[in-house]
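> tool_call: predict_assembly(chains=two)
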Amino acid sequence: MSAAAATTSAMPAHAEDVPRQLHSKPVPADRLFRGLLRGAGIAVLAITGSILLFLVIEALPAFRDEGWRFLTQTNTLPPDEFGVGALLPYTVLVAVISLVVALPAGLAAAIYISEYAPPGLQRPLISVIDLLAAIPSIVFGLWGFLHFMPQMLGNDSWLSHHLSLLPCTSVQPDEPQSYVGSVFIAAIVVGMLVTPIICSLSRQVFSQAPQGEREAAYALGSTRWGMVRTVVLPFGRAGVIGSAMLGLGRALGETIVVTFILVPTTGFNCHILQSGGNTITDEVATHVVDFGTGGLPFLFAAGLVLFVMTLIINTLAAIVISRSRSGSSTQAD
Amino acid sequence: MASTAPASADYPTRIRPVSPAETATTVGAAVGSLCLVWLLYEEILPFSGVVGFLISWYLMFLVLYAAMAAMQWDARDAVNRLSTVGFGTGGALAIAIVVATASYALFKGFGAVTHLSFLTQTMQYAGPRSPLKDGGVLHAIVGSLEQLGLATGISVPLGIAAALFLAEVGGPLAKPVRTIVEAMTALPDLIAGMFIYSLFILSLGFGQSGVMASLAISVNMIPIVARASEVVIRLVPGSLREASYALGASQWRTVLNVVLPTARTGLATAVVLAMARGIGETAPVLFTAGFTKVMNLNPFSGPQLNLPLYIWNYVRIEGEVPADFTRGFGAAFVLVVLVLILFTIARVLGGSTPGQLSKRQQRRLTKEAQLS
């Protein structure tokens, strides 16, 4: 009894409940491991950060020289005046026209594969599309330069004659040579290149539309097109926008196709059927060696402008994707 | 106590997804539009050429089908069937056109590849106007494979370690690393090549070589590998990790023995897909690899040619004799075949998840179960 009283009196009358602090020290091997991983993360950060820093530093002399005139100056002869005033519109024009070609084609193919293709055909088609997205762009460049362009010259002249009411479709002088190497042809080839990217990303998004909602649409008596229109397409809208923006980024940075096809020209005119055009990538790729160390800052500055544009587009795409239901499935590669 | 149902003749009703009326409408619209466009084409419509004919035929087919559908079915049904036919043909056409585009180089290059000398010789003894049977792409193939190997060796360990850092360690450093990796996917590959050219080749005076090209390729590959690997590693179920911790394993043991083996196939797929991208990129290697006509087995010194640069040089820079173009197509053929091989490896690796038995193993197991 006294022993029990002794033990109970040993405990405080009202014990306060304080959470116990748990200290778990990682094992030395774990500390080393985490340190190694952290080191790898820092290394990647350092490498990519130094690339960006190098880019900015190399481009600075050009911006110091010209300031904001760099963006409007249309001259491309260094070192006095070099500007992307003519290059930037061409880059955007080629990318936008290629998207006009690629977005409907890619979307139609994606809807076909995910909704209308026979089940046995779906997996092979998905593999084919993913393979097409990985084919090097120089293969498309070869096709465009050696096969497509000679064939399109006649069609281009027809378009120029019959669509003369639209702006930017006239070609002077009207001879076969002046249709070679036009923005229109280059943009179509880039569009071919971008179509598998858009198709594969959109298809992934469409295939994740919830089965329950699809069956609910059928249960309410809708047709297949009604189900696609009301369930699949709204679900995948953000994913499609994301994939379109990624395709746009790809088209903006495309070098090989435009260098193969476009015939360089001075100044900017919006006659897309006429020969001539010069994008940022084309200009940089052609002139890196012969500009020498004096002219390199200008090329770096042009590359920086392109990088900033692509970065803005990718960031917008990421924002649009992350706010949606279908977002998490769209992986950029 | 089931009551016996009357023995009536039960014919299974065949529900076909496409009714005969639909098939007839489709075929009728196709033939009708063909005839209509044939009639109008050269005479009345101002088009000309094969491409215009095919486009006109397709558009007329859709118009005719829509008209016939409107006559037979009610509005909702007609729109549904029109969209089925439209997407069925349009989607398949889009895919077929892109496939044909990509295979054009294959067809044209097949003629070059059938010469064994194309695959086994370099251009060392071939001049600018040599016929096709002289000279080949062996030096370009060797260069491509070596540069790809170096680039993979640099970018894959870094990329996977960075992905592990983002997924396992995290912390305040993770956000800047992730942001910058995302930003780097936006870098045009041409700029990556320019960076290497300007820093290593011009400023530090290293000169063009295979390792410079692999550095440029790995600058492009690291963000791809890091992002794809992070997604795969995140997909490993948390319960597996927690089970490993519960058994008393430290973090490095968990990662090396549980997480990585589970993510193994996904990681391999990501790596092989990044390799397929890396081998075909031309822009980064334009000024970093250099051009040469002889075999260069050492990627660390001297210019080393690779397949995209071979095509670039012989089609765009030289491009005078038809043999030049055929050589370019042949090199494109080899390049596409290499990409195909890498892709098939990725498909084979990515097909099975750990714990899933392959078909052969399943058959063996069922056979053993039947025997025992």
